[in-house]
Amino acid sequence: MRGPRMGSGRPIDRMRDSGGGTQLPDGSGNVIELVVIDDQLLIVAEHGIYSVRLADQIDPERQNPAIPFAVRRQEIPYGADTEFVCQTVMTAKALANDAHLPDEAKGEAVLRIAMRAAFELAGAVDVANDLRVSEASMRARVARQELKPAISLAPTI
């Protein structure tokens, strides 16, 4: 779609055809890996996984010049510094090529499954962290005697 418009002279075409880039937010760490799944670019950084969509993916008719060249979104706040991301996404990326997979396996399908697993594991980690914080808060309240334990032991006869 971009080819026929090149050189059309419209400001939006000049802007979109000129290229651009994106930056990860502070604290993301270094970019470790780029993964493409279903024409979607995913950036695996040390401290998060981000998706990037280009303006032409969002607005293929090029009607909205306000859309930046690349739109970035954090998908999960866990990155290559996290064990489960290394064991799912990074391992799948290393193995998802013709040299390592049998003919009937598709590298992109392996990456898609690994990324889905990473998203689910991120949710589980979030729940576990929330439970840990809640438990610590409850224990502190019991220690300050703001709460009584829900289970009381009755003497046995």
Structural class category: alpha+beta
Strand fraction equals 15-25%
- Please give the domain count: 1
User: Which H/E pattern describes the elements?
Assistant: HHEEEHEHH
Summarize the structure.
The chain is of the alpha+beta class.
Could you explain how this protein is built, in words?
It is a single chain. The chain is an alpha+beta fold and 157 residues long. It has one domain. 41% of the residues lie in helices and 17% in strands. Helix 4 (83-95) runs antiparallel to helix 5 (107-143). The chain is elongated. The mean pLDDT is 87.
Topology:
Elements: H1 2-5, H2 11-17, E1 31-37, E2 40-45, E3 48-54, H3 55-58, E4 70-76, H4 83-95, H5 107-143
Antiparallel strand pairs: 1-2, 2-3, 3-4
Task: Identify the notable features of this structure and list them briefly.
157 residues; alpha+beta; four-stranded antiparallel β-sheet
